[in-house]
């Protein structure tokens, strides 16, 4: 038995060597046994992390053959339909990777699918953090890092799908140039910096290449590292449940439980991306042909994460402002500036400021290590769903031409409908979500007060049939009782009719009204025992007082 428990020499020798020189044994022992809470939703962020790792690996492979040059060459590769066609070296090398490099097409498609999954993983991870309130103190800095990561991921995607210099990416590049040059004062300078002169210039591919493989990935890698370090120090929030408080952590150790789960999940993510790249074609650049500024293809669509910007451009009326009443003095094309800056600004700025705005409204400066159930903060959940609806309408209308063509409706009608829905949709989503949250809270209240339906039908002495309710399990009840009232500022006036300090003046009164509406307990949980329903019916049936209100 002692031999079985002894550390193998192959591990003990190198470990002792390193420990004697680096002194890392205590550090590793302490951190490998670090406890992490466990919940399926915590794995959403790992999708983004593992996709990022796959992006780095496949991107390194692609850089070995890609030529970031706009110099024109005559194509002489394996793809016969384009033989002899003049194209940029960037496009020719992309075709070479696709058809002549062993495994090249697989790597290209894995890289593209991993990029889509990277942004999608970050998006759903941020939604999970937002709806559970996991951005609250002490995790505000990590939330800001997450917002920066998402913003940089969009820029990384933009520079990435422009590199092949095919007709589809060129259409996106043309929109990028139009947005950049429309910016007041700095637009022409930004455009000349990117393109090296008049559009399309000769330098944009090489400059986007530097941004795509060096600058933006370097910043992303630094931010991901900072994000992981802070997460390691602060740990995940944990879902409410039995024995879970703000002062403890209920979960499994990093080694072996979390490491085994993370390793399996990385392989699963790799398998999904590899399967998509193998069986599902994406971005077939050989069908689009090389980019020329005079050509455009019908039904051009960007990758999904840029669709909301495309939709905002399509919905915006053709407004412009001619300074001093003349176009010669300078024109502000609002039809481009507003779609390019306002939706993105609303979403990203709102995300970055929300933790601080919520703290200002509620006055809540406590540390939070227990996550909220979304239903228990109905206003926050409603705001999140309204923002998703705003994004979704813009994303959907980015394909209004495809919608009109496939459903045989007027393109103008889809545009007009989108202009209405982009305002009405979020408002309706807010109201509906708020009512759903209150309904779910009432459902929790009923379960706690009366128990859960058992499926057993009981006949009372007076002949009435009822279903027997049983108390919920301890875990379910603890999960529901983890609910806390949303904090609220003291807004009541004192005996002299003077509002509390900070609640005076127009801004203070506004803050007080917002706090009263946002905070407080909407549907309090009752202290039930699971048999109250039957007891009340029995009391009525046996001649007891029947003027009590019975809650079903």
UniProtKB/TrEMBL annotation:
<dbReference type="InterPro" id="IPR016174">
    <property type="entry name" value="Di-haem_cyt_TM"/>
</dbReference>
<keyword id="KW-0472">Membrane</keyword>
<feature type="compositionally biased region" description="Basic and acidic residues">
    <location>
        <begin position="523"/>
        <end position="538"/>
    </location>
</feature>
<feature type="transmembrane region" description="Helical">
    <location>
        <begin position="254"/>
        <end position="279"/>
    </location>
</feature>
<dbReference type="InterPro" id="IPR027387">
    <property type="entry name" value="Cytb/b6-like_sf"/>
</dbReference>
<protein>
    <recommendedName>
        <fullName>Cytochrome bc1 complex cytochrome b subunit</fullName>
        <ecNumber>7.1.1.8</ecNumber>
    </recommendedName>
</protein>
<feature type="region of interest" description="Disordered">
    <location>
        <begin position="488"/>
        <end position="552"/>
    </location>
</feature>
<feature type="domain" description="Cytochrome b/b6 N-terminal region profile">
    <location>
        <begin position="14"/>
        <end position="240"/>
    </location>
</feature>
<feature type="transmembrane region" description="Helical">
    <location>
        <begin position="336"/>
        <end position="357"/>
    </location>
</feature>
<dbReference type="Pfam" id="PF13631">
    <property type="entry name" value="Cytochrom_B_N_2"/>
</dbReference>
<feature type="transmembrane region" description="Helical">
    <location>
        <begin position="47"/>
        <end position="66"/>
    </location>
</feature>
<feature type="transmembrane region" description="Helical">
    <location>
        <begin position="112"/>
        <end position="131"/>
    </location>
</feature>
<feature type="transmembrane region" description="Helical">
    <location>
        <begin position="208"/>
        <end position="233"/>
    </location>
</feature>
<feature type="transmembrane region" description="Helical">
    <location>
        <begin position="175"/>
        <end position="196"/>
    </location>
</feature>
<feature type="transmembrane region" description="Helical">
    <location>
        <begin position="417"/>
        <end position="437"/>
    </location>
</feature>
<feature type="transmembrane region" description="Helical">
    <location>
        <begin position="143"/>
        <end position="163"/>
    </location>
</feature>
<keyword id="KW-1133">Transmembrane helix</keyword>
<dbReference type="InterPro" id="IPR005797">
    <property type="entry name" value="Cyt_b/b6_N"/>
</dbReference>
<keyword id="KW-0812">Transmembrane</keyword>
